[in-house]
Specification:
237 residues, alpha/beta, Rossmann fold, seven-stranded mixed sheet, 35% helix, 19% strand
C-alpha cells in the first residue's frame, strides 16, 4: 500500500526550521523538514499531535527530542517506548544515522502512521506494535543499549517497563519536564527495585537550543527484584 503522505500543495503552514537545525541534522535536514510536514498534516488529522502544536513543532518537539543524542552512545541499539508520533525516536534517528532504532507503540492507527512516515523518509527504523511489558516485545528487543521514552509514564512505572529491555549497563533515557528532580527523589526505591542504579538528571542541548531538554538517566545495574503481592499496585503495568 502506498504511503499516505501529504501532497506538497496540501502541506499545512509549518515554521521554517531554526538555523540550529542544520547543525543538529546536517545532511538529513530535508528529511527532518519533511517529518515536520507529516506531523502538521496527517499527524494532526489522525490525532497524533494537537493542532495547536503545529506552530511550535521545531522547538517543543523535534529539536527537543533530537538533542537527546548527546546522551546516547555511538552505534547504540535504541528502543523507543510508547513512540506515538515518533517522539523522540524519529528525530533521534534523523540526528544520529549511526543508531539502530525501533519504535514500540501499542495502538494500530499510530503504528500505521509511523510505518508510512518512515517509508516516506526512507529511514532504516523498525516499528513494533505492542507494549514494553509484553513477552513478545521483551523477547524480541531485550539487550538494548538505550531505551527512550517521552511523556509515557511516571518514572517508577517506566523503569519497570524499560529496564528489563536493557542489557546490563544499558541506559534508560526518559525525556521529562521541570519536575524531573522531584520524580527522581520520589521514585528512587522503585527504580532500584526494577534493577536500576541511582537516577540522574541531565540537560541536553545547552548552548544550542533555546530551552534545553531535561532527561532522566537510569543505568540498568541488576535484575528486577520480585515485589510483594499487593504492594505498590500503582506501579503495576
Amino acid at each position: 500500500m502506498a504511503a499516505d503522505v501529504p501532497a506538497h500543495g496540501d502541506v499545512a503552514p509549518v515554521a521554517s526550521p531554526p538555523s540550529v537545525a542544520a547543525e543538529i541534522f546536517d545532511e538529513r535536514l530535508p528529511a527532518a523538514v519533511r517529518y515536520a510536514e507529516h506531523l502538521a498534516t496527517t499527524g494532526v488529522e489522525r490525532g497524533l499531535i494537537g493542532p495547536r502544536e503545529t506552530e511550535r513543532l521545531w522547538d517543543r518537539h523535534i529539536l527537543n527530542c533530537a538533542v537527546v543524542k548527546e546522551v546516547v552512545p555511538d552505534g547504540a541499539r535504541v528502543v523507543d517506548l510508547g513512540s506515538g508520533a515518533g517522539l523522540p525516536g524519529i528525530p533521534l534517528a534523523l540526528a544520529r544515522p549511526d543508531l539502530h532504532v525501533v519504535l514500540v507503540e501499542p495502538l494500530a492507527r499510530r503504528v500505521d502512521w509511523l510505518t508510512e512516515v518512515i517509508e516516506d523518509l526512507d529511514l532504516p527504523i523498525q516499528v513494533q506494535r505492542g507494549r514494553a511489558e509484553e513477552t513478545e516485545v521483551r523477547r524480541r528487543w531485550e539487550g538494548a543499549d538505550v531505551v527512550t521514552a517521552r511523556a509515557v509514564a511516571p518514572l517508577a512505572r517506566l523503569a519497570g517497563w524499560a529496564l528489563p529491555l536493557l542489557r546490563r549497563g544499558g541506559r534508560l533515557v526518559a525525556v521529562k519536564g521541570a519536575s524531573a528532580e522531584q520524580e527522581v527523589a520520589r521514585d528512587a526505591v522503585a527504580v532500584r527495585k526494577a534493577g536500576g542504579g541511582d537516577a540522574t538528571v541531565a540537560r541536553c542541548g545547552e548552548g544550542l537550543v533555546e530551552v534545553p531538554s531535561t532527561v532522566v538517566l537510569v543505568e540498568r545495574t541488576a535484575a528486577p527484584r520480585a515485589g510483594r503481592p499487593g504492594r505498590r499496585r500503582e506501579q503495576r503495568s
